[in-house]
């Protein structure tokens, strides 16, 4: 059984094969592979007996499900008004300068993907960003350099 | 909005082009449907139609907020995804973001080219709906006016798809009998029953995608359009002395999937592309307006002869249940030598608008060569709309339904509710079109396919009797090429 097929099959067995199991299944796949690609979606559609386009529609609706190959670390910088007033634009400039990419892009070494996200609920500690599942708050350009440096080291050790 | 822009014949140039401002894409690649995101207002009617009416789900809503758009699976082109090209989304789109691919310019080009001989065929469901797009009330039959308009537009020969609809019935009816003979008399376990119809190209694509294991259940007869295309460039060309290379075959269809069908690589039975251009009813209405013809005041005209004559059985192809009714009229008479036991040949159980209809006809006192059919109930099923088709096929797959013959039309109401028909198409309009079709049938002199004199002459010429040795040549014109080979090996 090809890899994606076995992952999807396992997820579907665990979560059930009803329409409402679609999102949990997609989350399981994402957790496993860090991306939900075309093959996975076709497989999910087959398991649940729904149209592949619907799986695609659901997968693209949620910001925390990636349908295209992204970096090992996905940086989600809060773009909402409180963080904006706390100087989010400076942070974004610094991130763009260090990583040499714009929001929505991935670094050529495949380590980082930069994205802007809606409110992360850390307004009292803005500006805030999320790297994969880890929140970083009260950011300053100096802190950003340390954080990115830390993740680069982590990746190299792996 | 679309009707206004049609009324003033604005075309493509009257609106601001939004593509340079936003990241819109236009998908021109499908032979049937153009999807232009720059015109889309995201009302999602197409998504619901595809989901609820057809149960295909080719279209979905992707992204959210300002990035939300109507898209296919992975934003692929319409021809790459599981889409049957039925065009119901096109029929529902209020802004023309989804439209059929136009071949109007190509057809005008062919008409205006002296070296080309342009043959046009018109489908049964076009004549009952064309008027709606030209200011006539729904339900009025405009056959004569349509023929007159086509002649004035400069087509060299105006012929009728109903002619090949009759041929389809004879083909399909005999095939059904063959399969029944093999199943009931010879007890051949390899024979595939139920047999399903093969005229609706949306249905063909549907079964190819979703029930590929049932492909051998399809009738091997080509759709009337493709039969006609093949015959136009062989039989008709030979009889009129026209070089098929210089012949352009145009068909007017209520359907967007027919555009796809005409472009299928296997549809080259005549050595050329059998049908060069397919126009929808809406495109024909637009061409009539472009030509400046006052449609309402036109005097009626008749189809050019041969391949222009048709029976009532050919006419009712346009309505759901029509193919079934036409086939039963022929099959019953072949088997018993008597007409079907219904008043005025109207087989009412297969008519109507319910999604799935079942009917059984008991065969009594058959002719001696069909005595094995004595007392047999021929179980038939009629479904329209692909959602209903799915239910029926699922039943067949599970083995819970024992049918002999299934008619399936991809569009609700059959061809009369096709994706290429005038907008709007509502249940009420469908009803009016249906009654128009049945009244046209009732007023025909010839009601049965096997009594159409032109068809009979054609069959004599091509010796198209399957009980005799059938010439491979004639068969390849009429049946799908894959099966033609099977038949050549002695099945026919």
From TrEMBL, chain A:
- Where on this chain does [2Fe-2S] cluster bind? 78, 83, 119, 123
Q: Which UniProt keywords apply?
A: 2Fe-2S, Iron, Iron-sulfur, Metal-binding, Ubiquinone
User: Which SUPFAM superfamilies is this protein grouped with?
Assistant: Thioredoxin-like (SSF52833)
Keyword Iron-sulfur attached: yes
What would be an example GO MF term here? NADH dehydrogenase activity
Per the entry, the cofactor note is: Binds 1 [2Fe-2S] cluster.
Q: Which cofactor does it need?
A: [2Fe-2S] cluster
Matching PANTHER family, A to Z? Answer: NADH DEHYDROGENASE [UBIQUINONE] FLAVOPROTEIN 2, MITOCHONDRIAL (PTHR10371:SF3), NADH DEHYDROGENASE UBIQUINONE FLAVOPROTEIN 2, MITOCHONDRIAL (PTHR10371)
- Family of this protein: Belongs to the complex I 24 kDa subunit family.
Protein known as = NADH-ubiquinone oxidoreductase chain E
Q: Tell me what organism the protein belongs to.
A: Geofilum rubicundum JCM 15548
Organism classification, top ranks?
Bacteria, Pseudomonadati, Bacteroidota, Bacteroidia, Marinilabiliales
